[in-house]
Specification:
Layout lengths: L4 E2 L3 E5 L6 H9 L17 E7 L2 E7 L10 H15 L3 E7 L5 H10 L6 E6 L7 H4 L11 E2 L8 H11 L6 E2 L9 E8 L5 H9 L17 E7 L2 E7 L12 H16 L2 E7 L6 H12 L3 E7 L8 H14 L8 E3 L8 H15 L5 H14 L12 E8 L4 E6 L7 H14 L8 E6 L3
Length: 447
């Protein structure tokens, strides 16, 4: 959900791993946005979403679990992100678990003492009065009030919502000026195998470290969104979990992450397929690109880590030729060498995205299309044999973004894939769709 408003108050959900933060996040959103799983530490990057709480618009952030015991480098990065979210929000919901207070809880409580004025303390997993007697012990840490809830079952969520609304100042929320025409937003999804530099590129484009960057493959789990402006154009960038072969996806967490990344294709205008320049195109890359192609999304192949490759012209030609050979049906897709770390090639990447977005939104009038069709049919008439004969009567453009054309023909079963490819190529060449996939459909016509 997004609003035609700005100045939304920000509410952060914080707590140690596995206390139910993501479950509460989803409960308040009324949809499954954050991945939930019994495994501690599922959420790593902060997950943001705009929502309505009792009719009031706000921005909700689910943070990674505050972990101290057996802390590794990735845990440290998660804790840093949690700190940043806490410092910059308007209200904090501290989630604790009934009957179990740990060193992580106590450390986080100490961290939050300077922010007591914007703190709501909830004790989760108290469904049906479970462990409520133990839950009252949380008051011994100096809190004046606690709320006992069950994020999973919904107990006392209504009271929590009332407390959230009561504690926030909505006077800063303003409606967007209707007299100012909002520019169209180009939505880009970063997809690819784990550890190809998706989060590094996302952070560079947004201009801040929204996504955690680590050498550990599979660091990103939820889809992380951010926005930026470039050359007066508005962009939304979606950093997704790395997609591995199904045989290697062994954990429920990764299963949900991968499926969410694939579904992101539906929400994007353009897919930037991040390819490790040293590894080249893999079977998994081809499957991702095929999914985007079938959905009619723009596809840019970004050869990342190009700064580590031999710096001579033939190197790029060799890699590009290899990709074109493996992906002959997608020769329309631009291939761009980039370095997400130092920014090389990023300007060209964004320029290409803007050109591609324009092509995705071209609409060809029916009269213009059928004049072109008449010329194409004269240049390459359909077969005239008794079994192969058919006639193309007329054509329409069904939609833009994705670009979808329908040709109406007699004896549709006789229209070969070769002839459809011919029509697709003519559309691409003559009507200005040089760098995007085209959905071409043949339907029966009685005219």
């Amino acid at each position: 959900m997004t609003f035609d408003k700005y100045g939304l108050p920000v509410v952060v959900i914080a707590g140690r791993p596995n206390v139910g933060k993501s479950t509460l996040f989803n409960r308040l959103l009324h949809k499954r946005r954050a991945i939930t799983d019994p495994t501690p530490g599922v959420t790593r990057d902060p997950v943001l979403a705009d929502c309505l709480i009792d009719g009031h618009p706000l921005r909700l952030i689910d943070t990674g679990g505050y972990k101290l015991a057996d802390q590794n480098e990735l845990d440290k990065l998660v804790v840093e992100k949690t700190h940043d979210s806490i410092k910059n929000c308007d209200l904090i919901i501290l989630v604790m678990e009934a009957g179990l207070i740990t060193s992580e809880d106590e450390e986080l409580i100490n961290l939050l003492r300077p922010f007591r004025g914007k703190l709501i303390v909830v004790v989760n997993k108290t469904e049906g009065g479970r462990l409520q007697a133990d839950a009252w012990n949380v008051l011994s840490y100096g809190f004046e009030k606690i709320l006992m809830i069950s994020a999973e079952h919904g107990d006392n969520i209504a009271e929590l919502k009332q407390e959230i609304v009561k504690r926030l100042d909505f006077s800063r929320v303003k409606d967007a000026d209707p007299s100012v025409k909002e520019e169209l937003v180009i939505r880009i999804a970063l997809l690819g195998k784990p550890n190809t530099g998706k989060s590094t590129l996302s952070n560079r484009l947004i201009g801040k470290n929204t996504s955690i960057v680590s050498e550990i493959p599979g660091t990103t789990r939820d889809t992380i969104e951010g926005s930026f402006k470039w050359k007066s154009r508005n962009f939304v960038i979606m950093d997704t979990a790395g997609i591995r072969r199904k045989a290697k996806v062994t954990q429920n967490i990764e299963y949900y992450s991968v499926n969410r990344a694939i579904k992101t294709i539906n929400d994007a205008d353009i897919i930037i397929l991040m390819i490790d320049a040293a590894d080249g195109l893999t079977d998994q890359d081809k499957k991702i690109a095929a999914l985007a192609h079938d959905k009619g999304r723009g596809i840019i192949m970004a050869l990342n880590k190009w700064d580590t490759m031999p710096q001579h012209k033939s190197a790029f030609i060799t890699v590009s030729d290899r990709i074109r050979f493996l992906f002959g049906q997608m020769e329309y897709a631009p291939i761009i060498p980039v370095s997400a770390i130092d920014g090389t090639g990023v300007d060209k990447l964004l320029n290409t995205a803007i050109k591609m977005y324009k092509q995705l939104n071209i609409t060809i009038g029916t009269s213009q299309l059928n004049q072109a069709l008449e010329k194409w049919l004269n240049e390459y008439p359909p077969p005239s044999g008794p079994r192969t004969r058919f006639k193309i009567k007329y054509a329409i453009q069904k939609s833009a973004n994705p670009v979808h054309f329908i040709f109406f023909a007699s004896r549709t079963q006789a229209v070969s894939e070769t002839y459809i490819a011919y029509l697709r190529n003519k559309i691409r060449k003559d009507l200005g769709f040089s760098h995007i996939p085209l959905l071409v459909e043949v339907r029966s016509s009685s005219k």
